[in-house]
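Q: what does this look like with (5S)-5-amino-3-OXO-hexanoic acid bound?
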Amino acid sequence: MSDKVIISCAVTGAIHTPTMTPFLPITPDEIAHSAIAAAEAGAAIIHLHARDPETGKPDQSPEAFAGFLPRIKQATNAVVNITTGGSPYMTVEERAKPAAHYQPEVASLNMGSMNFGFFPLLRKYKEFNFAWEREHLEGSRDLVFRNSYKDIEYVLETCYGNGTRFEFECYDISHLYNLAHFAERGLVKPPFFVQSVFGLLGGIGTHPEDVMHMKRTADRLFGDDFRWSVLGAGANQFRIATQALAMGANIRVGLEDSIWIARGKLAESNAQQVEKARTIIEGLGLQVATPDEARDILSLKGGDQVNF
Ligand code: KMH
Ligand code: ZN
């Protein structure tokens, strides 16, 4: 068990909407500033989505990423991770375009199809700033986040040849088995960066036993061939992180996954969550990994090998 912990920070995502918090980075400027501050606070990996600067709606066109990728690269040594999840409403072809074009060190790869319900958030908000927000939440009652075997192969075909490695997003135990299937076919190579996701409606829950079961299943399937990271969605973020840290995990924080810093208190920035993560890590006697240490742990190609 290494005492170096990789903090990933997912700065904006595609699930939370502008009405939910004034602190969600939306414009390229906001995304760049927020990502740079998160890296300065200790995030070794920055996981990125893009949004329409006027409305905040998820935008997966490669052009939408152009306003912040070079700026983050120039201002930090952080590993840039580009989403191929995009928004669950998009096709896989659309979702894979930015990672295929910019050839980052890491891209996300979602390891199975699932229901993805964020409609319970509707209860919290009466009015929305933009019309798309209500439709986005309401539509998730009937939303399947599609990641078929063919879809996963498509992302591998479009990105792996560029030396991009993956953050394998596993929202349930079956997604670990899907990763094992691709490993058996030789389509993915260790070390596998397994990002286990807890607490989304449609995925595994947030009970300590859920975290334990994810870890022991990954141990059984991959042995020494995986590097484990966890993210807890919403208010569970730091409880799950702390449990998993004590079990040897790396962690992901950021406003993509939770808009909170404490019970009922909005996080004012991504960096604030990274700082809290750092405090917990150091409080447990562990150390925060630098970006170069993360590159070493995950066998990444290097920040100078990207196309931005
Ligand atoms: N929002 C996370 C739970 C992706 O970008 O590929 C999942 C995610 C998907 O980060
Ligand atoms: Zn994401």
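Residues 4-305 form a domain with the TIM Barrel fold (CATH 3.20.20.70). The longest strand covers residues 192-198.
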